[in-house]
Aldo/keto reductase
Amino acid sequence: MSCMPNLSKLGLGGHTFIEELGNDPLASFEEQCTIVRECLDNGIQLIDTTYYQERVALGNVLRALGRRQEVQIMAWNFFNLPGQSDKLVGYSSYEPHHIDVMLSELQTDFIDVLVIHTHDDEHKLLQEIELAKQWVEQGKVGTVGLGMAEPAHLNRLPADHPVTHILAPYNIAHQRTKETFVIAKEMGLTTVALSPFVRGWKLDEINSEQAADLLLRWVSEQQVVDRVIVSMRKADWVHTNLQATQRGTLTEEENRLIKEWM
Ligand SMILES: NC(=O)c1ccc[n+]([C@@H]2O[C@H](COP(=O)([O-])OP(=O)(O)OC[C@H]3O[C@@H](n4cnc5c(N)ncnc54)[C@H](OP(=O)(O)O)[C@@H]3O)[C@@H](O)[C@H]2O)c1
């Protein structure tokens, strides 16, 4: 194995691979390969995929690069539903056949972190957690995450649950997640903050050269945050964002600016 760079707190978001939900136009396949290569070469090893289109794209990129083994793949329950292949379709509860579909889209035999999108049907959620546990036992899944989690979901987890990761949007427009993450840390779970830039739209709204740097540092420095997922349709963002996370604590002046943007 080649020499591993220091692992970053930063992870790559799957919206990188689709046209919707971002600022810049769709990255070409070549650009997508460059982005993932830059990530892996610089210690960004965690890659999140939400929509099925992102799994297909990441599968193709990793096959072209021949670097599947270096990536920690996180995948959510958003599927290719009949007649809706070209749409971004909301989540569906996990069913037994889903895991093989996901593995095939990703062109792999193993998903590192399988994410279950939470909802309020307690019974169904428990069934999904049980199913994920079976997939862990079968060796198809490494570990399990709960997505869009809130405190109530954590409090209701059964004693023998397989969940190790908690994922939720956490940014200056969505600060309530802190409460969830505090509980998650008390339970010894790994916390994954999503969308530090509120999909990039917040950056447009603030329109300051410092915005991306400060918003990313604001999240990544929170003690209750273990990982931060950002989507980046340009390879340049990889270095910009890595440098931001290494820049350290916000100064008083920087904190004041952030309060203004809130
Ligand atoms: N928010 C949710 O509800 C949610 C739910 C499930 C999963 N996720 C995960 O979280 C990931 C990230 O969320 P997100 O894409 O919604 O929002 P985000 O990461 O907050 O914002 C991404 C946007 O920020 C821009 N950007 C990235 N780095 C930049 C920089 N240094 N300077 C200027 N602009 C920069 C990107 O521009 P480009 O257009 O150039 O890329 C992109 O449009 C998703 O990919 C997904 O994996 C989020």
Observations:
- Strands lie at 10-12, 46-49, 72-76, 111-117, 141-147, 163-169, 190-194, 227-230.
- The first helix runs from residue 29 to 41.
